[in-house]
Amino acid sequence: MTIKTYQQQLEEVQAAISDILTGAQEATYNGQRVRKADLDMLQKREEWLVNKITSQKRGGIRVRGGTPC
After folding, report:
1. What burial letters (b/e) apply to 20-44, b meaning 16+ CB within 10 Å?
2. What's the DSSP call for residue 25?
3. Which helix (H) or strand (E) is 11 found in, with range?
4. CA 19, CA 33: separation in Å to the nearest integer?
5. The pTM is what?
6. pLDDT per residue over 7-60, tens digit each?
């Protein structure tokens, strides 16, 4: 089993979204068939992947609201 990178997953999600938006009733993503009604799910996954990729490019760990010692 090959683990896909976030970038590879994002490209697949965007291709599936494009297929649905250009008239396909169904698209295949990650070996699963998704219907037009699942467009919202694909868009949420796309947003999550974009955030992960952006976070990886920044690197490091961010701490918010921490109290300095």
Report:
1. beeeeeebebeeeebeeebeeebee
2. S
3. helix 6-21
4. 12
5. 0.67
6. 999 999 999 889 888 887 777 777 777 776 688 899 999 999 999 999 888 776
